[in-house]
Input
Amino acid sequence: MVDFSLKDKIALVTGASYGIGFAIASAYAEAGATIVFNDIKPELVEKGLASYAELGIKAHGYVCDVTDEAQVQDLVARIEKEVGVIDILVNNAGIIKRIPMHEMKASEFRQVIDVDLNAPFIVSKAVIPSMIKKGGGKIINICSMMSELGRETVSAYAAAKGGLKMLTRNIASEYGEYNIQCNGIGPGYIATPQTAPLRERQPDGSRHPFDSFIVAKTPAARWGTTDDLKGPAVFLASSASDFVNGHILYVDGGILAYIGKQPQ
Ligand code: NAP
Ligand code: GCO
Output
């Protein structure tokens, strides 16, 4: 029988107090994993622990800025001491800045690259040695439509997520022989706090133009929900995907396959 179980596995999901990370971690708990997560702000870690507890999940929460290598090294050491060796890493923590490129400060560009690309490198580097010693592991990077497509105002984010696609492929290439599989999930447009500004109602109560635009660009004719990501995330964390490596699994309702509605 195909095994989607995560029983006895320890999963670290970064930035998982809420949003996509929280949904993925909750699905992992349902599949039997022990959940570890981090956030930058202590109050968000507390909020996350309470949210997990509401689902009956006894998660382990830590304060850590994933862009700070010393903090990340300390986080991984503490997890290994207090919980156990990490079997599954989901590099989920991420930010976006929607600014026309010619108006974006270099410091703003660098900040997005730091969180969305440098941090997955830092955290993956921290967990790989123990995964090798343990005989294998799973690394899942949360990519994006912007790993493949550009659009106005998201230059830094697209550069980071495009880089994250290639970092995924390189980790897969470099560590496949140690039974470490590294894959990506490329969510489409998902209803979370990060995309709330793109969905907010207009003053007259009408839908945000970007909301209507995305629904028209998506064959599924809807925004995704965090629930849509749970199954793909469990698949890539389980032994069912042991021969899947370097793959970006797009969970986008068909956006990348679709040229757009033909003129009526
Ligand atoms: P979100 O609601 O903004 O949540 C992002 C999480 O990352 C928050 O918990 C945030 O914590 C945390 N974080 C940010 N910077 C961090 C840092 N330096 N160290 C530790 N944690 C940090 O985003 P989301 O929509 O759930 O997205 C999660 C991931 O999916 C991101 O990588 C995003 O790029 C990607 N994604 C989202 C969509 C979508 O449509 N929503 C689609 C494709 C990909 P704070 O609250 O403390 O900042
Ligand atoms: C944006 C959105 C997207 C989504 C996601 C799509 O401003 O275009 O935030 O970037 O977050 O990355 O896959």
Summary: The chain is about 40% helix and 15% strand. The CA atoms of residues 45 and 61 lie 6 Å apart. The first helix runs from residue 19 to 30.
